[in-house]
Amino acid sequence: MSAVAARIRPDQNPQAVTDHPAQATITMSAVNKWYGKMHVLRDIDLRVNKGEHLVLCGPSGSGKSTLIRCINALEEIQSGTIEVNGNVLGRKGAKVDHIRRDVGMVFQQFNLFPHLTVLQNCMLAPRRIHRATEAEARDKAMHFLEQVHIAEHGHKYPAQLSGGQQQRVAIARALCMGPQVMLFDEPTSALDPEMVKEVLDTMIGLADQGITMICVTHEMGFARAVAHRVIFMDRGEIIESAPPSEFFGAPKHERTRAFLGQILNH
Amino acid sequence: MDYSFDFAPVFQAWRLLAEGAWATTWISAISMAAGLVLGTILTAMRMAPVGVLRALAIGYIEIIRNTPFLVQVFFIFFGLPALGLRLDAMQAAILTMTLNCSAYIAEIVRSGVQSIRPGQIEAGKALGLPSFDVYRFIVFRPAIRAVYPSLCSQFILMMLNTSLVASISAQELTYAAQMIDNRTFRSFEVYFVLGAIYLALSQLFSLGLQLIGRSYFSYPTK
């Protein structure tokens, strides 16, 4: 992870925040979610500023994936509100599709569409939603595929690519919709170890462009290098939220220390 | 046994048989295509969040799958004129076959849709695609691929079922054979040849469906 550690932190890069002029903030207020009787999110209050990079970590079952899945309405919430880019979720008649167009998502299992080529995977949503012409959608797709260094595989099908390559395509596919916010749900957890770096490097490149990012990940090297804030969740609650230096250097809560002890002492 | 086989009268009527085989082929092809469209619509209704649509689809599927095909043919050909809908034998045959096979296809397509990982649907939604687009562009093709073999045997079964529409004098292959039988009294030979032609037809359909499948589902999977 030396490449990760050696790079400039995005908050020291004055260009970072100016690339995306539109306002992009997420505000979660008193969000609660239950799966039946299980209370998976408890009174979550979270504000994410434009251009901010957040890393969410915590033990499995702590609600971190659920939290980001609520932001693009893949999960319903039972109380509270989530505001994304001025659109409020959790009210009747919320324009869910509009919010989803502003929010890109990358999944642990990549979820590329197996019957479409890499290019077609990237072109589908822009063609259907933005009504882009074939040529426009192709140009845009090629642009982002080049950015994730996979343009030469554009004509291939997902099954012909490695996990790391598929995940990079998934990132490009999300970027083609021009999202204000990118959500990453354990993007490297399903990868073979030798492919983790290529995906993290891609995400770091993205962070450098100043896009708002929320990543659920246990890659602490990545968190140190990229995050403005690291958030620790346990049993549906946000326990601790701090800049990485503080979070790793002097965690305040016992549960955070115990968790860090478990994942870092190897 | 002192029966002497004589296939000559059957072969002399080859024109009738060929016309019948052609009729069977095209009414089957139309019913398959229409049945697939209708079956897919039924699947969508069957899985819709709206209770009324689900109930309608389930009711329809249950009625069709639990009544004999021949009764359905009679109902449409002899029964519907009472309501003012008068169809000729061919139209009634095609309509019945379409309605009948759509119910079976709906259940097959539904199991295909259910075989798709939820992550695929989530990825589509996360891109902001409306539900209809998610099912049309993301779910449909892999779902059909997953159940294509069952779908093909259903199609073949339906093609063989067309022999029943001879009973309303729809002029297809079995009807042609009955005419030859009436004329020649060579029942053994006529129905032996008829069986052979159906066998050949199902092989041809099988091959055609396989070729369609190969081009439509040519994408690789792990």
From TrEMBL, chain A:
Domain of life where this protein originates: Bacteria
One GO molecular-function entry: ATP hydrolysis activity
Span of domain ABC transporter: 26-260
One Pfam family from the record: ABC_tran
InterPro entries: AAA+_ATPase, ABC_ATPase_HisP-typ, ABC_transporter-like_ATP-bd, ABC_transporter-like_CS, MetN_ABC_transporter-like, P-loop_NTPase
Alphabetized UniProt keyword annotations: ATP-binding, Nucleotide-binding, Transport
Record-linked CDD domains: ABC_HisP_GlnQ
Family: Belongs to the ABC transporter superfamily.
UniProt-recorded name of the protein: ATP-binding cassette domain-containing protein
From TrEMBL, chain B:
Gene Ontology MF term list: transmembrane transporter activity
UniProt keyword list: Cell membrane, Membrane, Transmembrane, Transmembrane helix, Transport
Source species of the chain: Paracoccus aestuariivivens
Superkingdom as given in the UniProt entry: Bacteria
Ranges annotated as spanning the membrane: 20-42, 63-83, 146-170, 190-212
The keyword Ligase is assigned to this record: no
Record InterPro entries: AA_ABC_transptr_permease_3TM, ArtM/GltK/GlnP/TcyL/YhdX-like, MetI-like, MetI-like_sf
Position of the signal peptide: none
UniProt subcellular location: Cell inner membrane; Cell membrane
Bilayer topology: Multi-pass membrane protein
Protein's name in the database: ABC transporter permease subunit
A GO BP annotation: amino acid transport
